[in-house]
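User: Could you go from structure to sequence for me? I need the amino acid at each position, not a summary. Structure tokens:
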């Protein structure tokens, strides 16, 4: 029985007291997905996670499998274990979240990461299992695969979790390029015996070197992952020219021993020019450290030899961030602080940005290139490409950023908006009488830390003004949609919305709107969505749309004489498949047939509806556009639309990372005209995505 095997494996890993054994017996049950549990537990054992992690993880699996059973039995966890369980509960499983919730879930994962990295390590192991279970790629899997590629793989790499990163990467290639994947797998299998023999010969020579130098350690070997080979071949390279296809790893106790072994290796094997790399003196951006050399061995093929300390190996295999947050369990600064600049900023950003904006910024941060700059005293700081002197100022200290008035870059005075280059020596010029940052700085900075610092300044220094302005903006938006504060700001709605925004009071929400961290439309939409569920349908509010005699071009059960209005939750336009809903005393409300709010309506009051060709009118539809950042995006889009003689009724745009994102409301006659506008937009050179949106602007 698998549950018994799992129990025995756990008992072999940890020394459990009687209380822990009782807890283990309670939480292990057949209702769990035991295969998934076993896979994740093996990842946890590989990463040397502790028994608290294991007991908390299994307890959460019981809650997932049988919540009633979990509530009915007395599971006694210590405080640390209970906190891990609660962190798991706050992050939904990927299969359970809708597209609109993905951003919220990713943000929660980062907030959990700030409390305990073990939670996120385990979640990433779960994603690795889930993608492994997909045998062939289907349309419904695309969103999950894209999320894995855009967030989970680069996040695993940033956190130093190489095994999980490589596992997910291999499975992405297997699903997206099955033919090439299995051909490569076969080629590697054909070379397996030859490679194993070469590993044996080289290992004997490395052992002799270590014996002669009286150095103790371990020797391991590995073959390059298929995903890495696939990408190098796609970069117009032949498999025989990949120098790190095979690698051996020497792990020792001291840094000086690494260099001693490297010298001896070069005495017995000829190194390939340009393939000797010192990542100990110059670590990679994710903190990875090791010596690499590629040599020609007995079979006349290249073999990479990596030499590192046990400490470096633990950081590489299990994550330097895991070491920092979990194993050390300390707030004291040490050398690892220089490796976690991006990580700290991302966590801070998760607290301050709305979920959708956070995810867009996260993608930009994960994929952006890295540069290194220095203070005049030699402190090295890490930045994404395109970072400015303002980013540097806030990286030094938030007060330096707030009082920044200029910069010396390589001893020359430069504007604070100057983009930094790799190796620049930067000195920030400050003025204690400075009035603080300008809102324009938000368009100049690249790092989430600087952006967060600037927004924090406006929140704290101008808090009362922000609350006043934010409340006025919120009240105006809900008034335009036919609501009042007394209807929407009920305690039951506040208890749902505010925690999702990581806030405790509505005043914090107003302040965020006033400072620009949130938009009034975003916040209003959350409250209106809850009101909609409680009141069957938003459109029954009398002021949301105007009710009048049916000159709208809609037939209700073949009759054009009924009162109709259009649901603002789905904004139907002519050409959409529609259905009517009989409102009490207010005629018929027209929804799109795929409107998500239909599930909240009384099915017996739904009625057939169709468009009439006799009456013609304009409808307002919203188009969501994502484009590469460019100074003339707005001009190109508006010119294109006006040239088509289409009226723009509203426009909302912002820069997010390397992208320009905007929502444009247009007045069109039908879906055909809307599609024509969208099709022409897609032809613009720097536009990457054009979609119809239900967002109100």
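Assistant: Here is the amino acid at each position, in order:
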């Amino acid at each position: 029985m698998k549950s018994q095997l799992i129990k025995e494996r756990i008992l072999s890993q940890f020394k459990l007291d009687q209380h822990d054994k009782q807890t283990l017996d309670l939480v292990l049950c057949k209702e769990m997905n035991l295969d998934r549990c076993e896979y994740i537990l093996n990842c946890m054992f590989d990463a040397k996670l502790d028994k608290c992690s294991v007991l908390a993880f299994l307890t959460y699996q019981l809650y997932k499998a049988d919540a009633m059973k979990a509530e009915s039995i007395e599971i006694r966890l210590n405080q640390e274990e209970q906190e891990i369980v609660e962190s798991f509960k706050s992050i939904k499983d990927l299969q359970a979240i809708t597209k609109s919730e993905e951003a919220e879930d990713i943000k929660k994962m980062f907030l959990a990461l700030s409390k305990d990295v073990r939670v996120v390590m385990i979640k990433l192991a779960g994603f690795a299992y889930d993608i492994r279970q997909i045998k062939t790629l289907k349309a419904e899997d695309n969103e999950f695969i894209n999320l894995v590629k855009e967030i989970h793989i680069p996040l695993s790499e940033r956190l130093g979790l190489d095994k999980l990163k490589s596992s997910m990467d291999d499975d992405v290639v297997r699903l997206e390029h099955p033919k090439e994947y299995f051909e490569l797998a076969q080629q590697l299998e054909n070379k397996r015996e030859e490679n194993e023999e070469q590993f044996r010969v080289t290992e004997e020579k490395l052992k002799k070197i270590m014996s002669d130098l009286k150095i103790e350690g371990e020797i391991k070997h590995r073959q390059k992952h298929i995903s890495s080979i696939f990408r190098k071949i796609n970069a117009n390279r032949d498999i025989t020219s990949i120098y790190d296809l095979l690698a051996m790893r020497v792990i020792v106790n001291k840094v000086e021993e690494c260099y001693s072994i490297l010298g001896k290796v070069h005495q017995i094997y000829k190194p390939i020019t340009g393939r000797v790399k010192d990542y100990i003196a110059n670590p990679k951006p994710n903190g990875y450290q090791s010596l690499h050399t590629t040599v020609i061995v007995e079979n006349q093929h290249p073999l990479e030899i990596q030499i590192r300390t046990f400490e470096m190996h633990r950081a590489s295999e299990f994550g330097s961030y895991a070491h920092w947050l979990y194993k050390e369990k300390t707030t004291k600064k040490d050398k690892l602080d220089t490796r976690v600049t991006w990580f700290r900023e991302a966590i801070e950003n998760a607290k301050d940005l709305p979920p959708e904006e956070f995810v867009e910024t996260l993608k930009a941060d994960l994929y952006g290139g890295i540069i290194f700059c220095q203070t005049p005293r030699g402190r090295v700081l890490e930045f994404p490409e395109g970072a400015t002197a303002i980013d540097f100022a806030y990286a030094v200290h938030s007060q330096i950023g707030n009082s920044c008035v200029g910069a010396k870059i390589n001893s020359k005075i430069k504007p604070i908006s100057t983009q930094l280059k790799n190796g620049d020596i930067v000195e920030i010029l400050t003025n204690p009488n400075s009035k603080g940052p300008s809102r324009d700085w938000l368009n100049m900075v690249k790092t989430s830390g600087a952006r967060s610092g600037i927004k924090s300044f406006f929140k704290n220094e101008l808090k009362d003004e922000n609350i006043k302005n934010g409340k006025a903006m919120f009240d105006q938006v809900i008034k335009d949609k036919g609501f009042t504060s007394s209807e929407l700001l009920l305690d039951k709605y506040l208890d749902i919305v505010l925690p999702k925004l990581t806030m405790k009071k509505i005043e914090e929400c107003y302040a965020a709107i006033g400072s620009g961290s949130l938009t009034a439309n975003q916040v209003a939409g959350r409250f209106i969505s809850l009101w909609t569920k409680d009141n069957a349908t938003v459109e029954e509010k009398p002021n949301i749309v105007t009710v009048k005699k049916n000159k709208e071009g809609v037939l209700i059960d073949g009759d054009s004489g009924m009162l109709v209005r259009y649901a603002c939750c789905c904004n139907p336009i002519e050409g959409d498949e529609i259905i009517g809903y009989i409102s009490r005393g207010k005629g018929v409300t027209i929804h799109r047939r795929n409107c998500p709010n239909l599930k909240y309506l009384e099915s017996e009051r739904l009625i057939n509806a169709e468009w009439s060709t006799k009456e013609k009118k304009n409808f307002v539809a919203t188009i969501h556009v994502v484009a590469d950042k460019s100074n003339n995006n707005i001009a190109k889009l508006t010119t294109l639309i006006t040239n088509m003689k289409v009226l723009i009724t509203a426009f909302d745009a912002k820069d997010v990372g390397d992208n320009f994102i905007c929502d444009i409301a247009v007045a069109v006659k039908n879906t055909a005209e809307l599609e024509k506008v969208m099709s022409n937009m897609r032809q613009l050179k720097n536009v990457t995505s054009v979609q119809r949106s239900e967002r109100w602007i």
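One structural detail worth keeping in mind: The longest helix spans residues 192-212.
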